[in-house]
Every structure is written in C-alpha cells, then in structure tokens.
Amino acid sequence: MPSPEPSSQPAPIPSDAAKSRPAAKQVKSISGLLPFLRPYRGRIALALLFLVMAAVSTLVFPMALKLLIDEGVVAADPASRVMALRGHFLALFAVGAALGLFSALRFYMVTWLGERVTADLRNAVYAHVVRQSPEFFESNATGEVLSRLTTDTTLVQTVVGSSLSMGLRNAVMGIGALAMLVVTNPYVMTQVLGILVLVVLPSLYFGRRVRKLSRASQDRVADSSAIAAEVLNAIPVVQSHTQEAREARRFDASTERAFETARKRTLVRSMLVAFIITATFGALLWGLYQGTQAVIQNRISAGHLGQTVVFVIILVSSVAVLSEVYGDLLRAAGATERLMELLSAESPVAEPTSPQPMPPTRGGSALHLSGVNFHYPSRPKHPALLDFNLDVRPGETVALVGPSGAGKSTVFQLLLRFYDAQSGQIRLDGVEVRATSLLALRQRIGIVPQDSTIFSSTALDNIRYGQPEATEAQVIAAARAAFAHDFISALPEGYHSFLGERGVRLSGGQRQRISIARAMLKNPPLLLLDEATSALDAESERMVQAALESAMADRTTLVIAHRLATVQRADRIVVMEAGRIVDIGRHDELVARGGLYARLAAMQFGMEAPEGAIVAGPAPANA
Hints:
Elements: H1 23-28, H2 34-37, H3 41-73, H4 78-129, H5 134-139, H6 142-184, H7 186-232, H8 235-240, H9 244-296, H10 302-344, E1 367-375, E2 383-392, E3 397-401, H11 408-415, E4 423-428, E5 431-432, H12 438-443, E6 445-448, H13 459-463, H14 472-481, H15 485-489, H16 508-522, E7 526-530, H17 538-551, E8 556-560, E9 572-577, E10 580-585, H18 587-593, H19 595-605
Parallel strand pairs: 3-8, 3-9, 6-7, 7-8
Antiparallel strand pairs: 1-2, 1-4, 4-5, 9-10
C-alpha cells in the first residue's frame, strides 16, 4: 500500500494550520496524492490516452460539419450533393461512435482509479492512525479522525474519479477549440484572447476565497462528527441525566455553523462560476459576431461559420466545466491537506531501528523499573510517577494499591509502552522496553482491564482477539477456565453468536469474563490485572478468582486493586501515593507498620469483614 514518508511533526494534527498558507502552496497541496497515484502509472497513461482520443473526436466534429455544409448542402450539383451528404453523414456517425467508445473507456479507467486510490488512501490513513500512541488521542477527537477518513476521502474520490478527468478532457478540448479558432480567424480571436486574459485575474481572487472556505467547511463538519461520536458512545449517561434535548441542541448548533460556512463557500463559488461563464461567453460572442460579418462580406464560407459556431460552443462549455472542476479541486486540496496532516503525525513512541530480541522465559517474566519519572503530555506540570523503583521476580504476584491518582495505572501504561518515561529505565526480562519492538513487547503482556472492550463480532472472535490462530477447542478451554462457557453456550448461536456493538447483548460481568478468557488464551508470561473482577457479582467473582489463581500459575502478575481484601495473599503489596512508592510488604507487615496502608485497611475493614484469602484482583462492584 503506498504511503508518503512521515515527517517529524508530532501529534496533535493541526485543524486550521493551512488557512494562512500562500495560495500557491495551497493549490499544490493536492500533490500529496502523488504517492498514491504512482503505483498505477500504466492505468493513468491509458486513461489519458482515452481522454485525449475522446477530446480529439469532439474537435473533429466541427471540421466534419464544415465539409458537410460546404460540400453537401451548398454544392451546386444535386447528384453530387446527395452522394456528398451520405458520405459526410457517415463520417459524422463515425466521429460520434469514436467519441462514445473513447468516452466509455475513459470513464471506466478514471472511475477505477478514483475508487482504488481512495481505498489505498483510506487504508493508509487508518493503518497510520491505529499505530499512534494514546498521546495522539489525548489531543485529537475520534470524530475528527473519522471525518477525515470518510468525508475527506470521499472528496478526494470525487476529484480523482471524476472531476480531474473531466477537467483534463475539457482543458484539451478548450485548448484545441481555441487553437482552431485562432488558426481559422486569427484577427478576431486575437481580440478575444485579450479580453479572456482580463477574466483570469478576478478568477484567481475568487479561487483563493473558495479554497479557504472549503478548508473551513471541512473543519466544521469534523466538529459535528466529533460531537456525534462522543455522545453516541455515551448514550446511557446522556439519557440517565435526561440531557437528550441539550445534546440535540449542541449538535444542531454545530451543524448550523457547518451549514453557514458551506453557504459562504457555495456563494463565493457560484459568483466565480457566473463571472467566468459570463465573461467568457461575452468575449466569444464578440468573436462570433465578427464571424457573421465576415460571411456577409463573403470573406468566409457558411461552412466556415458553422465550424466556428461549434468551436465556440465547445470552448464555452469547456470553460464552464473547468470553472466547476476548479471549485472541486479547491475543495479536494483542503481535504488532501487534512489527510496529509494525519499521515504526517508521528507517534512519539517510536520503534527502535535495530530491535533487540526478547529472551525465552520460564515461570514468568522479570520486571525492573529504576528511577522512572513520568508526566502525561497533556499535564506537563503534574508528575504521574516520581523516582519510581520496583523489582518483580519471575512468577511473583505483586499488588499495587493506593488512592486514586497515585500512579498505579500509569505503571501499566509505561509497561505496555503506550507512553515513554521522561527518564529512568524499564526492563522486561533484562531488555529495555525501548530497545525491543512493540510487537515483541506487547506479545509478552496480557491485560484484563476494568472496563472490558467487546468488539462487534462473535464470542469466538472476541476471545481469540489476542491469539487469532487459536483453534475453537482452545477458545472453549479458555472460556471454561474463565467460567464463561455456560453463558456463551446459552446464546442463540453459541460461540458464533454476534455480541453487538461494544457487547451490548451481554451483562457487565459477562463482558469481563470474556476479557479474562481472552487474556488466558493469549497465555503471556506477564499478566496485568486492572481491577479485573470489578464488574462481577459475588458468585461470579469467586469463580473467576479461582480461574485467575490458575491463570497466574507460572507467570508474573501485577494487580491494581482498591479493595484490600482481595490482595491479602499477594507475594508483595506496593503502596503508592502521589506517584511514589511509600511502602512495600505483605498485608500483615503493612498493617503492623501503620501508615497509609493501615489507614486504608482500617477504613475498609471497619465497614466489612475481610473475605478469605482471595489471591488477586479487586473486590466486586455491585453487579
């Protein structure tokens, strides 16, 4: 798949960066499509050949018409006239047949190119976006990205698959018709060309305005898409707070802003089209008037005048089409610019140039964090981790506890290299995480998040998401281990049942058990549990805790927990506060020492008795 070389520009993508660029650079922005057109040079050459042949066929028509009038209509001898008429009409039919054939071939080729290039562009942008780090999505709304993937690529498709071809064809016909008019009527057309030069200057001004408004219009459409994506992904929250009317008004205001910008763009473009057509038509009518005077004075023949009329019609229609195409090109230039900005966004989490292979492991991974300091790019003055040091032995279960904002989830984010620490080292099995490939690193890690993500697919595909080559028997075994087999088997089509968008057909506990089965099937040496049983009821939690205890055998496990009753049998408990480690030990040791953990334990166990020795994972929420 063709794609341009990324620049060094980091995210976020600029939404209005190009509005103030010089007009010459703005027009050139459509050249960003060249890398996507280059692989299809052969087809482009064929399309151009058919385009030129169709244009030539059109230009031959006026000359054939001239011969028909002068030799077939005006001829003195009736017998010669009849024979000439037949021959000339056959010639005109041949011209029409050639025009139809070449036009059909041109249409097929350019339409194919438009569809193919647009698909390649859309795939390249999507593949580039899904490789961006979470930092990219901190600064760019999902709806904005979706707008560029859909609306902008559709505009590009319109230009590549239709407008550009029409523009080139009419440019060839217009230049050809103009050249013939100059050859056949040099004195008159010299005057006309002088008038047409005056048409160009105002057109450039109007064109610049259309270009800016086209870019602004696309940005406003993207704003509406961003609002819609945000609200539709949070429908239960919107409805539970009875904010449907408010959100509808907010979306309505956004679409009205988009409409107003589009209206201004359409108004300026309409003025551009009206000016070009009117001025050109007026100039050519002047030339035609001069031609009729020449016929009256017997300086040219009637056929010559007829030829001139048709050439004038071809030129005027070509100019009219070109004015429309020019507007489309200006809009496509804005769309291309926005897409190139996406493709030029470079993830700050970069692949190493010479990735170091990960060594084989037995009994889990070894983890070493030394002097790690990190702050999120969107919060540069608020450190998430400060001088963080932690060693985890292979096969050890370590729990991270502490108040919200202590930095527990940040540790997981850095282990997965969703972000890179500003300083310090993170080693997995002796290899610095920056030194190995993202693929090798993330294949070693399994995660069960607090909020399970279920894709719009079957239960089978969701479980083997991290292990696509797994057999159905392996999937069922993982589901049994996660106590998900019974409810999956009860679905209408069992493991082949469609689970709906974001798993809407399942309860929260069922979604969580599918997430646990997915991690167990991946079978990684390092398992991250981020409040992995938070969505389960008490009965399901006991089952899944037993499954997790089995899953944690022979592997290293890091657990984030808020309910301390669920981590009492962890090998070590790491107590965190404000991005620092304030204490490490087992449950009894930490309680005996007092401090933050003892206070947290007193608050929790004062409200409820400790529940047996559950190995790891947080206690259930109300499910």
